[in-house]
Amino acid sequence: MKKLPENIIQFFQKQGFVIVSTIDERGFPHSSCKGLVRINHNGVLYLLDLYRGKTYANLKRNPSVNVCVVDEHKFIGYCLKGKAKLLPEGKFPARLIKAWEERMTTRITQRVLKNLREEKGHARHPEALLPKPEYVIVVKVEEIINLTPGHLQ
Q1: Does the first or last residue of the chain, that is N or C, have fewer Cβ atoms within 10 Å of its Cβ?
Q2: Around Cβ 84, how many Cβ atoms within 10 Å?
Q3: Using CA atoms, how far apart are residues 22 and 113, in angstroms rounded to an integer?
Q4: Do residues 140 and 83 lie in contact, with contact meaning Cβ atoms separated by under 8 Å?
Q5: Sign of the CA dihedral 60, 61, 62, 67?
Q6: Smallest Cα–Cα separation from 49: which of 39, 36, 40?
Q7: Is the dihedral angle over the CA atoms 38, 66, 42, 57 positive or is it negative?
Q8: Residue 56 to residues 24, 68, 104, 122, Cα–Cα distance (Å)
């Protein structure tokens, strides 16, 4: 497991979502958006997934995963590669659900404030319509990839 520096932890925590890439049954990459709930210095990420779809099936078959975030405006980003473990509903701590609910509340609040400033986005508040999480993806990071071009680091 790879230790994570504070700047990477903070960068991931500021993002609304992460892109998780897995490998499908034919060996092709599959990417999907997931909600990051926790990330710690020991190199462990906790992602809540709302659906048991392709990502779930892929991780059952092959635990290799890539978790990526970028900030286009700041021109920086990171990919964290590692192995995932799946925790079904009922097997994950209540603190993760509470953290997810807090993140959703923050996202809804930010959307309302942007709408009030006339930065119209989605007509409804999609976060409020999301189902409850079905399982947790626990990722143990093995490698950190800095996506920022070398001459800008």
Answers
A1: C
A2: 22
A3: 35
A4: yes
A5: negative
A6: 36
A7: positive
A8: 10, 17, 22, 28
Domains by residue range for the chain, with CATH? 6-93+133-152 (2.30.110.10)
Please tell me whether residue 132 adopts helix, strand or coil conformation. Answer: coil
Cα gap 8→18, rounded to integer Å? 13
Distance CA 67, CA 9 (A): 13
